[in-house]
What does this fold into?
Amino acid sequence: MNTWSDLCLICAGQQEFVVNVHEAGPYERSHDYTRVLFCRTCGIGELRSFSYDGFVVFGEEDEVMVWSSILCASDVDLLRTGFACELRLAGECECPQHVRAYDTSVRVDKTRLPEHGPDRHSPAGRTTVTVAVVDGLAEFRSV
It folds into this structure.
């Protein structure tokens, strides 16, 4: 069974929700998540971090921010088989696998996407990350 998530930032098709690395919310005025998504049409994966902060003062920063990195299909497949938690979509899980994935996802290079415009829907300039399994736990690494 596939669980679908956000639209692909490249082709606007439905992306498969592969792993929910971390999630806080959604709450009335905030929502944060880090997810691994996969677009079968484009054949690429995405490590996406999303932040909505409804407490932001106007002009201080954007209330919605998205950071993204590309994952190759083989890295997405490695996450499907090598993610050491059976609850891959449980972003609130605090098992060692989810903690390792989140900690390493925070440290890898991701591209902050503009809220509007053609650069939001382009792989050009977007960083790439890879996946490794270390001591039985999947983690993200900058390329």
Notes: The chain is about 15% helix and 45% strand.
